[in-house]
Write a structure and sequence with these properties.
The structure holds 2 protein chains of 2 kinds. Chain A is an alpha/beta fold. Chain A is built from 15 helices and 10 strands. Chain B starts with 7 loop residues before the first strand and ends in a 6-residue tail after the last helix. The chains are: A alpha/beta, B alpha+beta.
């Protein structure tokens, strides 16, 4: 293998199978640390240049948790083309293994499934290189997505109620103005919010991101009655335009849980026009904790799990107060042109099944030679 | 599949379960559509929404078998449930959708089209219009919600 292969698990939080993709990526990277790197989709969508270069300049293997194929959609959104795709649903059928029902910590069946996915990823890596070329690496400017729209948001934007600055998509999309430090009020006539959209950082490489995700599970699974209809929602599904997730983001106020000072959850919310009414930051709640530490163990460390539990306990009264006071009306958002089309994304990337139980993309991208000489005809075979 | 003017929608909270008017509906949440002398069956959008991602689909009967109404004919495992499948009508099994045995995802992606389940000849049994099926769903929705509550956050 001549260059690092980037593993891009779907990294959702809603379905158990999304955590299977994370675990499979961890296992594969642990087995091939020199040959692989893991892509953090939340950081990518928050505008991280480092993650974008991983996606655009290296062969990417997407690991799709379910038929919605969010990871592939995200690649399209940023203008990258995956080299190969592993679908967990295929391995579920082949191995007769199910992901189980607990997403906070995978059951044994979920762990076995993750191991089977990791084995398949090893097969994929052994087959490298694939017929497609890597992306050109051209970095878009302005809007971080391939649409190059003008809806990107300045993350330092003033969302205070009296701000005259309405230049960003967030303030256009949102029917009211929100403060980040006070319970948001959308007007006396708006009803009290019945629930919250919890948007935890869903990163995969930093310890704080892992803690934020676990904290969201604690809040929504252990405090279900307290938090009403609140759900931890998926950044990948939002970017992939999954209707159900998008509706939820529009219908309930977003509360961001940031795992580290990168503030990816808050940034993603703004970039998609649904700025958080409140952002809670792990690095402020536990300033002594090294939240930016790289952490790639398949299971959370005991310390990570303990901090997640304690942070959730701290957040409960604050979220309870927020829910009691927050007036809210449904809002709109921007998908940057992305529409979730599970079958369409297959055609878009021209995925073709290999004999080894995964798919490769046959979508041709311009090679350096072709860019210099437009008459060069490109071909790809599988 | 294009939605004709007879399509009705049953709202499962925020989720729209579309019920096309070009077919009939059975009590066990399957649709059926007459294709000449053959009846084709599949899961309604309501059923697919409750089941979510389909993992496995197994049939316990074979092509050519005659089945009786509510006879156990198969089994399905999804991300939300495992369930036995029962014959929605009496009849003779003409064929199963073989593609689903390799990849059941069309059930989730195109339940009224390529996600069809099986075909019956000489089908006999009760079926409803989409309006009647919608009324049945409305009458049972409260209880259904109570049943699934507690599993909603998984």
């Amino acid at each position: 293998m001549s260059e690092k292969v980037v593993l891009a698990p779907c990294m959702g939080v809603g379905k158990v199978v999304a955590n299977v993709t994370r675990r499979a990526a961890y296992l594969t990277h642990a087995a091939c640390p020199e040959d692989t790197e893991i892509l953090s989709i939340p950081a990518l969508l928050a505008g991280s240049e480092e993650e974008r270069r991983l996606a655009l300049e290296h062969p990417v293997v997407v690991i799709e948790g379910c038929v919605l194929r969010c990871a592939s959609h995200v690649m399209k959104l940023i203008g990258a083309t995956p080299a190969a795709k592993v679908e967990v649903s295929r391995i579920i059928r082949e191995k007769r293994l199910t992901p189980g029902r607990t997403r906070k910590e995978l059951e044994n069946s979920g762990k076995q499934l993750a191991e089977a996915v990791a084995e398949r990823l090893q097969v994929v890596l052994a087959d490298a290189p694939w017929p497609t070329e890597v992306s050109s690496g051209q970095m878009p400017t302005g809007c971080p997505f391939a649409c190059q729209c003008q809806n990107h948001v300045q993350t330092e934007h003033d969302h205070s109620p009296n701000s005259a600055d309405n230049s960003c998509a967030a303030s256009v999309a949102q029917p009211s103005q929100i403060q980040n430090s006070e319970p948001a009020v959308t007007g006396e006539t708006a009803p009290i919010a019945k629930g919250l959209t919890l948007l935890p950082c869903q990163g995969i490489k930093r310890s704080g991101a892992r803690i934020a995700q676990r904290t969201a599970y604690h809040l929504c699974e252990d405090q279900d009655k307290l938090l009403g209809k609140s759900q931890p929602l998926c950044i990948s599904a939002l970017a992939a335009g999954v209707p159900e997730d998008v509706h939820y983001y529009c219908d309930f106020p977003t509360v961001a849980l940031n795992g580290c000072p990168q503030n990816c959850a808050s940034k993603v919310a703004e970039l998609f026009g649904i700025p958080a009414v409140r952002s809670f930051n792990l690095y402020e709640a536990f300033p002594e904790y090294p939240c930016e530490t790289r952490s790639l163990t398949p299971d959370l460390t005991a310390q990570e799990a303990e901090i997640a539990r304690r942070w959730a306990e701290q957040l409960v009264p604050e979220l309870q107060q927020l829910l009691a006071q927050l007036h809210w009306q449904p809002r709109s958002h921007t998908t940057h042109g992305m529409v979730n089309e599970p079958a369409g994304i297959e055609r878009y990337f021209a995925y073709n099944t290999t004999a080894h139980g995964y798919e490769v993309s046959q979508k041709l991208r311009p090679t350096a030679e072709a860019l210099e000489n437009p008459t060069v005809t490109e071909t790809a075979t599988v | 599949m294009s939605q004709d003017s007879g399509t009705v929608t049953f709202w499962m909270g925020k989720f729209a379960a579309v019920l096309p008017g070009d077919r009939r509906y059975c009590r066990n949440h399957m649709w059926c559509q007459r294709l000449g002398e053959v009846w084709r069956f599949g899961f309604t959008a309501y059923a697919v929404r409750l089941m979510q991602d389909v993992y496995f689909l197994d049939w316990y009967v074979n092509v050519g078998d005659t089945v009786t109404y509510l006879q156990l004919i198969g089994h399905i495992e999804t991300s939300k449930a495992t369930a036995d499948l029962f014959a929605p009508m009496a009849g003779r099994i003409l064929q199963f959708n073989q593609a689903l045995l390799q990849d059941p995802s069309p059930i989730n992606l195109d339940g009224y089209g390529t996600g069809w389940l099986f075909e019956l000849a000489e089908a006999q049994g009760e079926s409803w219009s989409n309006e009647e099926y919608k009324a049945y769903l409305e009458a049972t929705w409260e209880e259904t919600q109570r049943t699934i509550k507690g599993d909603i956050n998984r």
